[in-house]
Specification:
Elements (H helix, E strand, L loop, with lengths): L1 H21 L8 H18 L7 H27 L5
């Protein structure tokens, strides 16, 4: 169960960091883009490399970051797609 949650969180972190970098939500000349690319590469490495079941603290931290990325995507893209008055 923990490894499935860990894989899902890594996938959301990877997609979210790529979305932020490729849609230019931040300037690509800042240090934040470097940090986001490092985070994306580390989550890709965690997805590719087979490893043991992670601990509860690692999974909860990754789930927190994944939920924050999903909420940011919702606030920026989804609400702009359907308009703010519809909500």
């Amino acid at each position: 169960m923990l490894s499935n949650l860990n894989t899902l969180a890594d996938f959301v972190i990877l997609i979210g960091s790529l979305w932020i970098l490729l849609t230019s939500k931040i300037s690509t000349r800042t240090g934040a883009s470097l940090v986001l690319s490092i985070i994306g590469m580390s989550s890709l490495g965690n997805l590719v490399i087979a490893h043991d079941c992670p601990g509860l603290t690692q999974v909860s931290l990754k789930l927190g970051v994944a939920i924050a990325i999903a909420y940011a995507w919702y606030r920026i893209e989804f609400r702009n797609l359907f308009g703010k008055r519809a909500w």
